[in-house]
Structure to design on (299 residues):
């Protein structure tokens, strides 16, 4: 799926073009855009917007050079899922700007909790203007099979196929057969996996909400929590180490409390941290305890 996103970008945007990327974003998006010679335009969102791209923020980011909007729902790193109404509002902004194609990264399609999943290309007038990217690593837990796919207008897919023929040719036939088996299997095991993710999410949300200095929208999909820890920036550890950035905080929690988190700096949101709950429930309970212990020692 990552290769599909990259190839779509390379086929749709080049030197002098702009690609709109809502933040927080998956770390590879801006670098893919730069590698293709285009310019990433970051549309900043925060806790106030529940980390969702709003019509006003999108409109402000659009220029005559805009060629692509990248959407990721459910989102990595925030777990945000755009509702049908959210997506329709975005589509309404885009309809007059027919030079813009949407790359809809839907790799977490099957991991949703409290809202329905909607594919952007199903909206009125958006099928022809959407490249849909998906795969098997997340929803089917097939990370090692390295299998993804994209769907879009014939000329875009033809260009992407020509590009891929010079890079990797194709996934192995074994991976392709495994993908077919996943699509044809009973989804009961996936539903059980999602139920367990929900249990872990709820535990982490309970933890985040117990700290008045942390702000965190409840994620409706994927397996990430993205709390805003800005209130802890500008503090100092017991050993006198300053905590000025989310990277500082994550390194402190790793080195002093043995918890691995990803700083929001990497995702274009410097006051956030990403917590993955793709881990055992007991490990999540222990990790949240250690994080709280570490935060309590900052002053």
């Amino acid at each position: 799926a990552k290769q599909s996103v990259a190839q779509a970008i390379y086929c749709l945007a080049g030197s002098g073009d702009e690609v709109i990327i809502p933040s927080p974003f998956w770390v590879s998006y801006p670098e893919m855009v730069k590698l293709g010679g285009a310019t990433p335009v970051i549309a900043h969102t925060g806790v106030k917007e529940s980390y969702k791209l709003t019509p006003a923020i999108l409109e402000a980011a659009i220029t005559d050079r805009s060629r692509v909007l990248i959407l990721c729902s459910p989102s990595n790193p925030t777990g945000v899922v755009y509702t049908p109404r959210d997506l329709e509002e975005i589509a309404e902004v885009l309809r007059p700007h027919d030079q813009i194609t949407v790359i809809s990264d839907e790799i977490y399609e099957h991991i949703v909790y409290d809202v329905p999943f909607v594919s952007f290309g199903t909206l009125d007038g958006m099928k022809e203007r959407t490249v849909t990217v998906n795969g098997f690593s997340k929803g089917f837990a097939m990370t090692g099979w390295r299998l993804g796919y994209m769907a879009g207008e014939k000329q875009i897919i033809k260009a992407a196929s020509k590009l891929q023929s010079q890079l990797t040719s194709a996934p192995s036939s074994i991976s392709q057969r495994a993908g077919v088996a996943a699509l044809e299997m009973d989804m009961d095991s996936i539903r059980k996996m999602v139920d367990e993710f929900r249990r872990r999410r709820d535990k982490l949300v309970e933890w985040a909400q117990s700290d008045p200095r942390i702000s965190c929208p409840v994620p409706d999909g994927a397996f990430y929590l993205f709390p805003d820890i800005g209130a802890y920036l500008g503090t100092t550890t017991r050993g006198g180490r300053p905590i000025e950035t989310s990277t500082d905080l994550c390194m402190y929690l790793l080195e002093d409390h043995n918890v691995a988190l990803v700083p929001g700096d990497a995702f274009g949101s410097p006051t956030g941290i990403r917590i993955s709950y793709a881990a055992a429930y007991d490990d999540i309970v222990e990790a949240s305890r250690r994080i709280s212990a570490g935060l309590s020692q900052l002053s």
Q: What stands out?
A: The first strand starts at residue 18 and ends at 23. The domain at 188-296 is CATH 3.90.1150.10 (Aspartate Aminotransferase, domain 1). The CA atoms of residues 209 and 215 lie 7 Å apart. The chain has a mean pLDDT of 97.
